[in-house]
Amino acid sequence: MTATTEKPAVETPAQRASEEQPAQKKPAAKKSSPTTKAAARRTSRKGAAKASEKASGAASGAAERRMHRQDESQEQAETSASTALATPLDLLLADAGTGPLRRFVPGVSGIKFTAGLARHPGKVVRRTTGLAAELTRVGLGRSRLAPAEKDRRFTEEAWARNPLFKRTLQGYLALGAAARGLVDDAALEWGDDQRIRFIMDNLVEAAAPSNNPFLNPKVLKRTLDTGGGNLVEGGRRLVRDFATPPRVPSMVEADAFEVGKDIAVTPGAVVFRTDVFELIQYTPQTPKVREVPVLIVPPTINKYYVIDLAEQRSLVEHLVQSGQQVFCISWRNPDVRHADWGLDTYGQAILEAMSACEDISRQDRTAIFGICSGGMIASMVLAHLARTDQLDRVAAYSLAVTVLDQERAGVTSALLSHKSAAASTQASKEKGYLDGRTLAEIFAWLRPNDLIWNYWVNNYLMGHAPKAFDILYWNADPVRMSAAMHRDFMDLAIRNALVEPDAATILDTPVDLSRVTTDAYVVAGIADHLCKWESCYQTTQLLGGDTKFVLSTSGHIAAMVNPPGNPKASFQTSPSGGGQQGTDNPADAAEWLDRAVKVKGSWWDDWTGWLAERTGEERAKPRRLGNASHEPLADAPGTYVHDR
Amino acid sequence: MTAEPPQGASGDGDVMTPLRRDVVRQLTVRGITARVSVRPGVGSYASKPPLLLCNGIGVSLEALQPLVDQLHPDRGLVRFDVPGIGGSALPPTPYPIAALSSWVTALMAKLGHRRFDVFGLSWGGGLAQQLAVQSPRKVHRVVLVATGTGCLMVPASPRVLGIMSTPRRHRDPEYAARVAPEIYGGSMRTDPERGAALLHAATRSGPKRGYYYQLAAMAGWTSLPFLGLLRQPTLVMGGDDDPIIPAVNPRMQAAMIPRARLHLYHGGHLGILTEADELAPVIDAFLDEPDTLRRPA
């Protein structure tokens, strides 16, 4: 984690290259190449604020645009839902203890920003005169400014045809562009630049005329139509939403779905329960199943059912129907009494779950599938097994949207400093846990256009109920994180400890990921703005086995929830390295992307094929769930999933 | 969905073990999402009204498990977390007990139960009394355990009330073990760890604010004036060593409710949970009595 205020980001590519030649056995490339970084900086300066638009390099940018063109026609809900997601660690760390307000305090970055502007007075003058000229053109009606084609806020005809609204909009666009331009002019270092850009984007987006009931033609029309009923209804919603945390507009009605009724419905039973988790065994749906069970380790910072949404949208169901024996951990939602649950607690839990899977399926191996933060812990557990000579208990390792190498893992790490990290662990320590609802607030402010203003207009100004969308329901069902886990995660992120062999420990053994020689299947989402795919890609450089990397379309969650049958879905992959690490996974992510082959369809199918090769022979399905020592305790989805 | 029935055998010789019939689910009633545990009645109980269990203050539905395990296995049961407790969402504003009572009947209606029996323990006993008087046609029989008549009752000692005024005992196991004998009495005096375990291990914690909402709901509420209006057959139970609810309270309730009978037991505030094996049959016997009076049409 170099992106801190104390340790500014490395200055020059050359310098970085010289610094980045550690005496390591393996070619651990920790960053995409300097050229890509520069390109990325350039593209972001064009004001493409949308993370999904941010080309991560010249090469990948083209590919990304290519893939995006195919993705564009996806539903609007899908788009916004893909932005609602599990939380990246750095973010947790940065402000979860203290709430979202901190983020809006520019602090030292603000001073640097002002100083940066003072250093470039010429640029500032040019920027200001340019703005004045543009505003004059706007006033005269000669401006050609128009909102981006994809911008859903200004689709109303009045924005283009009504002179008054048109001028309002163009004036806003001119001012917004100038404000964002100032950040470019200040020529800040990476961390400060990201931080100030975040604040500026938020201000600009909050000021949009579409958020103002008196300036938004759509709202004015509706007020006329309903005689102000929309504002009464919207006011009611506003009071309801802001009475209880998270104090952000609700993205989904509380009763839009019911867990166990229309989501998390794949049949199965809880066969094992401890204080920390419930282990769900899913009922086989094929006459024959593979011998080796698959154990899913979901994120600890969300409910597990993101992988078991509605029928046909459930990864679990897909696995079961492809003939796998599926087990899934459902983490308990910890509260103040569980403040001391740390990495070791969760690591131990995974080991217990593995033992239960082995016992029930009468096998001595399990295939592990870790997701997001669950993937992080699972990776460490694998390293522990490697260290204790038990790695043969893992038949195959799959990892989805997980960042093990935190180096510059996107905007969130730029916002993280040692100081704020320490402050927030202190805060969670006092409270005993980190509240998921605070995270939801922080989260929403990371993508205000999609997650706040969009709903602001829809819920409060138009008085509509938000659309029922399962991913958003899941996202609005937050969990807590125990203080010790928060501390441990934070420590990992700050030190970027998983990259260095033996820098982190779990269950009293040092973690060296290169000892994990199990075959691995690593999935990332190309538009994932939180676990950037380049960061996920670095996992291929860390693990010591034959690793197949797969790059799916869409973002953090939509990449996970990627059922077959979507004609738009595709993924990119390259042949894996035949057991020799690095053979086909070059150190540089952009280079990998150049070589990758695009495959139509969902990676789910590709993955089940990959799993089938590694989960043993087929045998008749088990006659019952659980066994004598693990009697079924309750039907899936179990009880822990209902804890709020 | 090819869901196999949770019990019995499915088509091709699968022997699926009968699972525990309690199904925990989330239900949203009037905009508030609540965690509910439902055990449908079977056999001769399938057509009888289910028993709604109203819990003590600040604890989630798991805390009632010792009693549930001892009640007749075929009886239909409904347990729920009061909004703001355990797995239920915090309501946007504090609520009066009457509003909660009406919300609970809406919850039962959503579950498809027009008539039901009510069991109330401690704080839940207040809710049960309110339910009985507010929905006389829906509530069939009433069981009140270790509960009082609200703010007009013979109070506990100030020290006990002080301990009760915060949710700390549900959150801090050492503290719970320390205060358990003093506030719960009965077998807790000899075995305080058990009290801590009962409250601490079992409950799923909600926000502190939920507990204070519960306290606030009972502030200023009393059932004393309307106890005479209760039409339902009522069983009043209480412990003779209950620091929170001195035994005179259940006696008073039994005297004032027209169709009440009293069952005093040796034990403390949580006797119904710690000595469930002895007390659950009393409840079962009462609920299974034939109705002697004609029901209101």
UniProtKB/TrEMBL annotation, chain A:
All copies of domain Poly-beta-hydroxybutyrate polymerase N-terminal, residue ranges: 150-318
Biased composition regions of type Basic and acidic residues, renumbered to the chain: 63-72
Low complexity bias spans: 24-38
Region (Disordered): 1-83, 562-587, 614-644
Gene Ontology biological process terms, A to Z: poly-hydroxybutyrate biosynthetic process
Biased composition (Basic residues): 39-48
SUPFAM superfamilies: alpha/beta-Hydrolases (SSF53474)
Superkingdom classification of source: Bacteria
An annotated Gene Ontology molecular function: acyltransferase activity
Upper classification of the organism: Bacteria, Bacillati, Actinomycetota, Actinomycetes, Propionibacteriales
Record organism: Nocardioides aurantiacus
InterPro entries hit by this protein: AB_hydrolase_fold, PHA/PHB_synthase, PhaC_N
One Pfam family it belongs to: PhaC_N
Keywords, sorted A to Z: Acyltransferase, Transferase
Protein name (Swiss-Prot/TrEMBL): Polyhydroxyalkanoate synthase
TrEMBL record, chain B:
InterPro entries: AB_hydrolase, AB_hydrolase_1, AB_hydrolase_fold
Limits of the AB hydrolase-1 domain: 49-275
GO biological process, one term: glycerolipid catabolic process
GO MF assignments: triacylglycerol lipase activity
PANTHER family documented for this protein: AB HYDROLASE-1 DOMAIN-CONTAINING PROTEIN, HYDROLASE, ALPHA/BETA FOLD FAMILY PROTEIN
Name by which UniProt lists this protein: Poly(3-hydroxyalkanoate) depolymerase
Native species: Nocardioides aurantiacus
Lineage: Bacteria, Bacillati, Actinomycetota, Actinomycetes, Propionibacteriales
